[in-house]
Specification:
Blueprint (H helix, E strand, L loop, with lengths): L3 H9 L8 H6 L34 H10 L3 E5 L7 H13 L6 E5 L1 E3 L2 E3 L3 E3 L5 H8 L8 H18 L10 E2 L10 E4 L21 E2 L3 E6 L3 E6 L2 E3 L4 E4 L6 H11 L4 E8 L3 H8 L14 H9 L4 E4 L6 E3 L4 E15 L13 E13 L5 E2 L12 H14 L3 E5 L7 E6 L6 H12 L5 E6 L7 H11 L6 E8 L12 E8 L17 H8 L3 H8 L1 H4 L3
Parallel strand pairs: 1-2, 5-18, 6-14, 20-21, 21-23
Antiparallel strand pairs: 2-5, 3-4, 7-17, 8-11, 9-10, 9-13, 11-12, 12-17, 13-16, 14-15, 16-17, 19-20, 22-23
Helix pairs in contact: 1-3, 5-6, 6-10, 8-9
Length: about 550
Amino acid sequence: MSNNKSEKALNESSSDALLSRRDVVLTGAALAAAPGAIRSATAASPKKPAGSAPQPPFDTLRDYVAALEHAGLLARFDGVNQDKYQATAIMYQLVDEFGLREAPAVMFENITVNGRKFPGPVISNPQGNVNTEALLLGVEPDARDIMVTYDKVTRKMLDVFRENDGQWPQIPTREVSAGQALCKQVVLTGDDVDATAFPFMRGNPGDGGPYINTASVVTTDETHGVNYGIYRCQLKGPRKIMINFEGGQTGIKAIRAAKKRGETTVPVCLVIGQDPMTWMVSASRVPSRIGNDDPIDELAIAGGFRGKAIDVVRSENGKFLVPANSEIVIEGTVDIYNLEPEGPYHEMYGYLGHPKDNFVFTADTLTHRKDAWIMNSFTGVIQEYIDAPQRAESIYRLQKAHPQVVDFASPYDTQGIIYISIKKDAPRQAFEVARPLAMFNPLARVIIVVDDDVDVLNASDIRFAIATRWQPALASEIIENRRSFPLDPASPDRKTTSKIIIDATRQWPEEGGPEVYQRLNRDVFEEAFPDAIAQVTAMWPDLLVKN
């Protein structure tokens, strides 16, 4: 269950000053190799609460946030007025200043939302900083280079996936009684249910209304089993919530299956304020469902990542087992025939989405922790979840099909672009590797393939490869009329899109490239004087090494 001491320390501590860039970057060294072991790296780190840091695995959102604050990865803001979009402004500024993967998690206290002041707190960006990947997955971070940290976590996850023959380890859930479940501290039914009593907000002035945008939306059907997915949910009244089930997602498959059975409604739960691993499996494509319609026990997989079972409790309607240590659980039904207008909403591509007709969820029960916390995702602004496991799974599957694949990246800040590096051993191999991805992954609209000497996590390296190795007329392939991701703002009809594969590897003569490809200047230099950089760095560390 929860660590009450850590939650009390978190609630009593305060740090209203905005973190400096140095504060956030240097806290990377505050995380130790063993899960839960945290040490202070620098006197420049922000003030941390007294007492010991909570230890992973984190049973509650509150324990996890307390650990972030102990590690110097949390910024607190008091008195923010979101009716003037100050929280949105803060998130944009943090990402502009620190970068998408270095911005801290945020706690908003005494926040004004929808004309009311709420004590909060509202948590945002809880898994955006790269060092949260290390904290949650037990990897020693690199104090100087966050992308080295990210790659180390990915390689660890890749080893785990390989050792389990392409599956994630699972630990079955553990059912507890209602009396042991934190999410059952308060139980409301019928007209006592009021979802507007919590600070669910508009994240952008263009939004059609306030949104619950971090709920694990729980659905079930005979084919796919129980599914946890993150879908935008517009709050229209105390008990009326719109749910956006997009095409291709598991939630909409449950709706279609219910229609085939002749049903008019389906039971749904909204789980809010989840532990970090339940959030990760709900928000990410881990495990991948591509080509797999069999039931997947996502909470057992979350337990496998934690190394400890997720405690679950029976929902009040008896239809679901839900994470017992969540902050809020809203139970009800979705009318699968009578749709109503919903949106617009600030989508993950960074564009305001279209309004649409959507499904109406009617809440009949709401249970929650006393003084419940919520999370808010500023979609399209922040990194939503740790994604090293997702990247590791992609590398594994690509390498199984094509042993020449070395690395893979799908940057969150440029949705639709994918980078793959290969150790090329045949002409036009880039297209063989990339074509299946372009054909069947709706998110993959631009696939750039590079040589194995190019770091796919370094945007400068990618640009260099495109500028010096790509021949547009010889090394491009356009694919038309493929299924698009429904939220893609460039899709002409929100259903189809064209795609491009860019072969930015060195073009061989058989591919129309030069007979001899020039060598890189740096390769020539480092072969001739391999120790030169280490020597000058040792001689002038204050000038040549970042503080």
